[in-house]
UniProtKB/TrEMBL annotation:
Residues 126-186 form the ANTAR domain. It comes from the Bacteria. It comes from Alloyangia pacifica. GO terms for molecular function: RNA binding. Coiled coil: none annotated. InterPro entries: AmiR_N, ANTAR, CheY-like_superfamily, Sig_transdc_resp-reg_antiterm, WH-like_DNA-bd_sf. This is Transcriptional antiterminator. PROSITE patterns: ANTAR.
């Protein structure tokens, strides 16, 4: 069960706005500074320093893929879309790019604080989920390695259970994890060593 979310402290955070000079930018900067954020505006180039920022605001109406030094969906910070147009092509770009929150234009006198909080929570959840998926893939790979190692050890007339217990004993003798012992066995076969080397 997921833990209860809490509202992060935003004072002192840094936001980058990728948008042409416009009244919407002026309104956005005013709200961000009222919350306590430091703001940097840029167009059309995104500064390399954006990776050190806490939030990125992008103008979906004019943004394009080449402005970003990462693949769509891989933004390294919470990203908030400023949306004015509902043209299908722009919405499709937005969905493919992947953002964590959105604000409809014209930007008024409110809505930025909640967008910041939603973007932060969505980004953190996305990163956490990506980490869990990576961990599951790694564990799946380790299980496959264990199966391969047991198969290697079972080639000399041992049953699967006997080979499994031999692998467990080797892990204890080598003082490594079960998975590490399995990886050593599989690697030894790739290196051309024989089953005799496994004791």
């Amino acid at each position: 069960m997921r833990g209860r979310l809490s509202i992060p402290e935003l004072g002192g955070a840094r936001a980058v706005i990728l948008h042409r000079p416009h009244a919407n930018v002026t309104a956005l900067v005013r709200q961000l500074e009222a919350v306590g954020l430091h703001v940097e505006c840029c167009w059309p180039e995104l500064p390399a320093s954006v990776r050190g920022a806490d939030f990125l605001f992008i103008d979906v109406d004019t943004a394009f893929d080449d402005q970003f030094p990462w693949r769509p969906g891989d933004a390294p910070l919470p990203t908030i879309a400023l949306i004015g147009s509902e043209a299908p092509g722009r919405i499709e770009w937005l969905m493919n790019f992947g953002v964590d929150a959105q604000i409809l234009k014209p930007v008024g006198d409110n809505g930025v604080y909640s967008a910041l909080l939603i973007a932060r929570a969505t980004f953190d959840a996305r990163i956490g989920l990506a980490g869990e998926i990576q961990n599951l893939r790694q564990r799946l790979g380790q299980r496959q390695t264990v199966v391969q190692a047991v198969a290697v050890l079972a080639t000399r007339g041992k049953t699967e259970n006997e080979a499994y217990e031999q692998l467990r004993g080797m892990a204890m003798a080598w003082r490594v994890s079960f998975e590490e012992a399995a990886a050593r066995i599989v690697a030894s076969v790739s290196d051309g060593r024989t089953d005799k080397d496994h004791g």
